Amino acid sequence: MKLLLFAAYVTFFFLNIGGNQANADKLEMISIAPDETSSDPGVIYATKKYLFFTAAPMGGKYALYRTDGTEGGTITLTNPNTVDIHKGASMIEYNDVLLFQGAINYLSGYELCKTDGTIEGTVRIKNINTSPDPINPAFERGSYPGSFAIFNNFAYFVATITDNAGDSYRELFRTDGTEEGTTKITDLRGLPGRFRRPYITGLNFFILFASSSYIGEYDGELYQYVPNLGYAMVKNIRPGPEPAIPSNLITLNGKTYFNADDGVHGREFWKTDGTELGTQMVKDITPGSEGTSFNEVIVYNDLLFFTVRDDDELWRSDGTAEGTYRIARTVPSYYTVSSNINGLTI
Fold it and tell me: What residues pair up with 157 in beta bridges, in sequence order?
């Protein structure tokens, strides 16, 4: 039976979900850190075959691991002494491999990599940004690929490129998992800062962007990109000079859910069907202008699960206000600490 898996503090948990009930039970898991020290797990990502995660045994540098749930099937895929993996590295499953952000050595920057779950099959796909670092020219800047989304048999992502003048900016790329099939598909330099740090997600026949810049009245808003046609704003969520900054985009049943600040309710939970009228706030979780800070969001059994930084506990949503509520506390309410949940996966 598939269960929701996450890490709270340094403990892994299963969350057994049935109907509207949820119960958290401690999961006895193979330790990768000696003497019961913390490995401080970061990203946890489940594919059809393996569970991938980042960890730093003995407080060292982070490495990429995979496990099939057995001691013998838990291995380190990257050597932390030669390969740099970020604790929160972006990942996505695509055509039976895991795409992720990594640096194959400490001279190269973070680039697009893939793994089939073997050490030999853990390789870099393409070195997108080889420009030298302005502070230490011996190092490359890297493209920092992230915000992955699968759409029409391609994996889309955003990455940083640097022009001849030394200016860096984010662009939309797509890949088929090969170096030759990894290409830039947008040229957004004429829009200063607009898509400097976009989030993307596939929705029907287009890609949704969420700009996080602060330049201009229409920056920091929700856009859509239609392949071969271009891009346009979906809705100006926060009219005026301040940005709405949509983030944590994820798609479920033909709608994309995200966080945004409309200037009245603070950062709250929104959804869109790709139209202006269909872009609405789902629920005002924290009434008033203070808003709610969100962490990770995943889809499981036609529901959304996410964590809220205000209480670091687990929430669920079916896309309606009534169906959006907290379902479990992993730390008893009489404790003054929160669960610090991270690495939601299934």
Answer: 173
Q: How far is 104 from 130, CA to CA, in rounded Å?
A: 13
State the distance between the two ends of the chain, measured CA to CA, in whole angstroms: 10
At 339, the amino acid letter reads S
DSSP3 helix / strand / coil % (the chain, rounded to 5): 0, 45, 55
Question: Cα 158 to the chain's mean position, in Å?
Answer: 12
pLDDT tens digit sequence for 58-67: 667 888 999 8
pTM reported for the whole predicted model:
0.70
Residue type at 344? Answer: L
Which of 245, 276, 254, 145 lies closest to 206, judged by CA?
254
Count of other CB atoms within 10 angstroms of residue 147: 21
| DSSP track, 276-302 | STT-EEEE-SSTTTT---EEEEEEETT
Q: Tokens for 135, please give them.
A: 């502070």
Q: What is the dihedral of CA 242, 244, 248, 249, to 10 degrees?
A: -140
**Which strand ranges, in their side-by-side order, compose the sheet holding 111-115?**
91-94, 97-102, 111-115, 123-126
Query: Measured between alpha carbons, how far is 213 from 193 in angstroms, rounded to an integer?
Result: 6
- Residue 1: strand, helix, or coil: coil
In 96-162, at which residue ranges do the beta strands (DSSP E only) sit?
Answer: 97-102, 111-115, 123-126, 146-151, 154-162
Give the separation between CA 15 and CA 37, rounded to whole angstroms: 24
Amino acid type, 166: G
CB 154 within 8 A of CB 175: yes
How are beta strands 123-126 and 146-151 bridged, if at all? unpaired
Q: State the pLDDT at residue 167.
A: 82
- 156: Cβ contacts below 8 Å, ≥ 6 apart: 148, 149, 150, 172, 173, 174, 200, 202, 207
CA distances from 215 to 105, 149, 221, 242 (A): 35, 26, 11, 9
Query: Within the chain, which residues score under 70 in pLDDT?
Result: 1-39, 58-59, 188-219, 226-230, 309-312, 328-346
